[in-house]
Amino acid sequence: MAETLLSPGVLTRENDQSLVTEGPIVAGAAILGPTVKGPVNVPTLVTSFSDYRSRFGTSFQSASIEYEYLTSISAYNYFQQGGDSLLVTRIVSGTFVPASASVASKGGGTSFELESIQEGSAATNSGSVSPSGSLENGTSENVRFEINGVDSGSGTFNLLIRRGNDNQQQKVILETYRGLSLDPTNENYISARIGDQKLTKNGDYIQITGSYQNLSRYVRVKSVSNTYEYFDNDGNFKSSQTSSLPVNGSGSLHGAFSGGAGELFYGGGLDMFENIDDTVVYPQGVQPSDYTSSIALLSNKDEYQFDIISAPGLTMEKNGSIVGELTNMCSERGDAIAIVDPSVYASTVAGTIADNSTIDSSYAASYWPWVQVRVPATGKLHFVPASTIMPGVYAFNDRTTAEWFAPAGFNRGGLGIALQAERKLSPTDRDNLYLANVNPIATFPGRGPVAYGQKTLQKNKTALDRVNVRRLLIELKRTIGSIANNLVFEQNTTATRNRFLAQVNPYLENVQQRQGLYAYKVVMDDTNNTSAVIDRNELVGQVYVQPTKTAEFIILDFNVTPTGASFD
User: Fold this and answer.
1) In degrees to the nearest 10, what's the CA dihedral of 77, 78, 82, 87?
2) Which of 18, 86, 164, 219 is the most exposed place for a label (fewest CB within 10 A)?
C-alpha cells in the first residue's frame, strides 16, 4: 500500500538494497586432471600450493613406489612462478560416491546418518572392531567416528571424527563436536554445527543441496531421525522418551563408514606421466572421455572465469577429439586460451608437426618437446608434457608485465622447475616447428629450457596468430564488455554514450601507455546509432585497435666502411 502525506510533515521510508550476490569464480588459470583426492568434477578454487595439497593431495604410494600426478606438478610450478589463483577440476573414471555411516539410537533405530565429504572408497573404514586396542583396519585417508558423553537429561552428546588407522589406546582425533543436539530449534543442532550441504552436477552447473554450510572438513550430516526429542527453552522435555539419542560408544570402540565407491587413486606400478590413451592402459587412472562433462561444465563463463586452461596428459596425437573439445570450449567462451600438447613422449619433429595440424584456432597454443622435472613430492626425475609447465610461464609473464606481452624468450619464457628439454632442437628444427605453429621449447648453452615461440594454432596469417595479440583482445573484450554491461536497460541517449566513452577511452589510453596498443579509436555516436538502430533497442559501439607486435625476428646489418669515412 502506497504511503502519502495528507498534511505537512516528514515521511521516512527505507529500501534495503544491501543484498550481496555471489559473483563468478575468478582464477588466473584452470587445470583439469586426476588428483589423489578431492571433490569430483567440481571446479574448485585454490590460492596456494598448500591449499591445493590439503584439498587434492600430492603423492601416493602404490606397492613400494611413490607417485605424483601431472596435475599436482602443474599446480606446484604455477604457484612457484607467481600464480595467485587456480581453478582445479578433479577428473575420475567410473562411479564415485561418498561413504556413509548410520548411527544407532537408544530406541534401536537410527539416530542420524553421516556422509564423508571425500567421495570414493578412501573414506570407507568398515573393518572389524579390536577391543584389545591393536591397529584396526583403515588407512590415514579413512575416517571413523565415536559417540560419547550422551546425556539423556539435556538431550546432548559428543561426536568425535577419528583417523581410520588409529586405535583405541592411541586415538587420532581429527575433529570434536561437543554438546550436539537432535533438536532443530537448538543452537547446537547437529546439522547446523557440522553442515549438510552437498555439491552435485546438474547439467552444466553445480547445484548446492542442504540447509547448513559444511563446517567439518571430513563429514556432513546426511539425515537426522524424524523422531527427535524436543526440548523447550528451559531445557525441559516435551516428551519423556529419549529413544532418538545415539548410543554412548556407538560401534563399541568406533563407528565405521562404508559404502564408498570409486578408487581414491590409481597405481598398479604404472607411471603417472605416461600418455592418457584410449587404446592401451590408463596410467593416470582416467580415460579421455572422462574429461567431456568437466569441459562442458567449464564452458559456463557466468560461473567460472579464467585466462588459460590445460589438461596435462592429453595430446592431439592420442586424444584429438577431447583436445578439440577443450579448444572449442575456449573459442566459444572467447575469453581463454587452451595450452595443449601435440605429441606423446619421444615423438619426432615431423610427427609433432603432423599431429599439430589438426586444430585451427587462435584460442589455443601448443608447445614441444616434453621437459624433465624433479617431481616435488618424490624428488625423482621425470619427463612431463609442456602443458604441465606452461601455465606457470603465463603466470610469470602476467605478474611481471601484462597479458599483451609475449610469454616467451629469455626474459619471460623460463620454464620454472623444468631442468632440461626432452631433446635439444637445432635451429632448423625450431624453424620447421614454428612454421607449423608449434612453439619450440629451446635449450641454449648456459641457460635452462625456455619457451621460444608464441604462436597460436590459427592457420590464417593475421595478428591473432600470436599469443600476445589474442590475449590482448581477450583482456580488452573482458574489460570493455564489463563497462558495457552497466549500460544494459539504460536510456539510449547521448548522455549514456558519453558515459561509456568516458570510461573506455582512459582505459585504452592506459593500455597504450603500457605498450599494448599503437593506436585506438572508439566510436559511439549518431553515426552508428541511427534512428533505425535505436528503434531496435540497440546501442552500437565500435572499437578500433592497433595491437603492438613483438620483435620475434631481429635483423642486424653490420657495415664495414673505409678508414676515414664519416658517420654523420
Assistant:
1) -150
2) 18
Q: What is the mean pLDDT of residues 535-539?
A: 90
Q: Are 212 and 186 in contact (CB under 8 A)?
A: no
CA atoms lying within 13 Å on the CB side of residue 131: 1
- The pLDDT tens digits of the residues spanning 252-306 come to 556 788 888 776 555 444 445 555 654 544 555 677 888 998 999 999 888 899 9
**Which 3-state string (H, E, C) describes 175-186?**
EEEEEEECCCCC
Note whether 456 and 467 are within 8 A (CB).
Answer: yes
Question: Cis omega (within 30 of 0) on the bond before 369?
Answer: yes
Instruction: Write out the three cell numbers for 477.
Output: 573484450
The class that CATH gives domain 25-93+266-468 is alpha beta
Question: How many whole angstroms separate alpha carbon 430 and alpha carbon 423?
Answer: 12
Could you identify the residue written with the cell 600476445? Answer: 468
- Determine the 3-state secondary structure of 149 from DSSP: strand
CA dist 413 and 11 (Å) reads 65
Nearest to 522 by CA among 476, 489, 474, 464: 476
Mean pLDDT, the chain, whole residue set: 83
What is the mean pLDDT of the segment spanning 556-562? 68
Higher pLDDT, 236 or 394: 394
- Yes or no: say if 336 and 310 are a contact pair by the CB < 8 Å rule: no
Sequence-separated (6 or more) residues with CB below 8 Å from residue 349: 425, 429, 432, 433
pLDDT, average across residues 166-183: 87
Spatial separation of the C-alpha atoms in residues 406 and 395, rounded to whole Å: 12
Q: What is the pLDDT of residues 333-354, one digit of tens each?
A: 999 999 999 998 889 999 999 9
Q: Please, which residues have CB within 8 angstroms of residue 415's CB and are 6 or more apart in sequence?
A: 371, 389, 390, 392, 393, 441, 448, 449, 450, 451
Domain ranges across the chain: 25-93+266-468, 98-224, 488-560
- Note the helical H segments in 15-69: 49-56
What is the helix (H) or strand (E) element at residue 473, kind and residue range?
A: helix 467-485
Distance of alpha carbon 89 from alpha carbon 536, whole angstroms: 42
Q: How do residues 501-519 score in pLDDT, each as one tens digit? A: 999 999 999 999 999 989 9
Nearest to 492 by CA among 540, 524, 541, 539: 539
For residues 88 and 74, the answer to whether their CB atoms sit within 8 Å is no
Query: Is there a contact between 98 and 118 (Cβ–Cβ < 8 Å)?
Result: yes
CB-CB neighbours of 240 under 10 Å: 6
**Alpha-carbon span 212 to 112, nearest angstrom:** 16
